[in-house]
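Aggregate trends can hide what the representation actually does to any particular protein. For completeness, the protein is quoted in full, as a sequence line and a line of structure tokens.
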Amino acid sequence: MVEVIKKLSVEGSDVNARRFGLIVIGDEILSGRRQDKHLGKLIELLNERGLSLSWAKYVADDPEQITATLKDSFTSGDVVFSTGGIGATPDDHTRQCAALALGTKTKLHPTAQELIASRIQIMAEGDPMKADLNTAENQHRFKMGEFPIGSDIIPNPYNQIPGFSIREHYFVPGFPVMAAPMMAWCLDTYYQNLFHRENWAEQSFIVPKGIESVLTPLMERIEASFPGVKVFSLPSVGDSSRGGVYAERHIELGIKGNAILLESAWIALRTGTEALGYAIHDISKSD
């Protein structure tokens, strides 16, 4: 409870400036044996709550890489979710690397110990041999509850084996079916004070045959003239399968930010684009 209160009332912090990051750990992602689903899901969870993802990193199952990445993120002041590497197999290094990055050690968390013991009993299905917590196999399972000293647990509704949190870093399994509800729980438990604080909006249109170097000065003027508004450009070489303006080279040009600030910037962006001699294709829901 103390940590919850601390996280909900970060002294002197600008809640609108809080950044959220994601670290995805696992050789299987980098090799292509598995497709990452955490990035899209976290973006979805954040957007549902009026928040956004600021950055994401992919890291191999390499202790030096993981430790270095966590050292950087612990000093960033960001809210960070980390997926993968918290099991008890030889390629699971995240728990130990998090402790090393913080200059501490891991220790069996008492609540995690209880939850893992309960899971062992459930999986034993009445078999006294499988339920014996002193067997080498079951003792090894308790390693999944060894977290950096000072950690809190993150409940796992799928199989009870918890994740852990420390210093606004939230460590969850690499299995999306487990990670998604655990990340949602963290957001809802610790960051409700940040939800929907800003009326965020985004608008864009298509510029057929647009050239970024020609549009860049306009984009820079819009951002300079309308503080708090960001201009983005998404060029495409064309997609023949879509047809129409999308079949040929084009740019999706748009703005994003607080909805109250966008109206004047939107007009200026459209007017400026047309002044450069470009036609504008408005994006419809059917596009």
Q: What stands out?
A: The longest strand covers residues 200-208. The chain has eleven helices and twelve strands.
